[in-house]
Amino acid sequence: MSDSIPSGYENEPVERFEPLPDPQAALYYQVETDTIVADIRFYARVFQFYGCTRIVELGCGPNRIGSALHQHGFAVLGIDLSPAMLQLARKRRPGSHLVQMDMCRLGLQPCFDGALIAYHTLNLLCGRKRIMSALQQIRAVLVEPSVLILHLFVASEELRAEPETRQLQFSLHDLPDGARLVSELIRSYDPGQQLLELEQRYKLRYWGKPERNRNFSSRMRLAAWPEHQWLELINEAGFRILPLPAE
Fold this sequence. Notes:
Blueprint: E1 18-19, H1 22-33, H2 38-49, E2 54-58, H3 64-71, E3 75-80, H4 83-92, E4 97-100, E5 112-117, H5 128-141, E6 142-150, H6 157-161, E7 167-174, E8 180-190, E9 195-205, E10 214-223, H7 227-236
């Protein structure tokens, strides 16, 4: 006889998850990030302060940032590897300059005075060699004086001190077709490889139509280095840290 106290969930069915298709991944990413606005004001302020006018955004996704920077008067070229992301990007602002391209193999001429890699996109390259390759490719398409803005995930002391800890984040979103999207992000840290392991779960729920409910999941890894490692790599790639403009 077990001494454990019943929780009431012992007989609940096990949730099953399907692989997340690219079109849904792009759409759900857009739904989750469209409410973010503070970063756009920051990017525009920095580029304006340093006199940048021609921007290349690497990993542009559904064009949230590029479209907003265009409204601030910048000429923006968006680059992404995902056709599904670029399809949404074109719908957001028809006529946007968008190219499907790998940021580690940029077939561009040096004509930009600003570059942006937002939302931890550089971390997704994981390995030091690929990240260095991307930084070198970006440096080659910039003309001086120029500015590169990086939004990086940096492994905190707390994360590195407790690598076994799994963290859960969740959010709720309403979709245009009336569905409720439950987003769950489970994070864990691998200290041996210095990687952040992410499991993204999406639960699609239709009120009164349970037959349409679906569960999707995907996994990804991010380079999770402490600050000093990022600074060493950035300096090695030929960049230097600039002061931020006053607000």
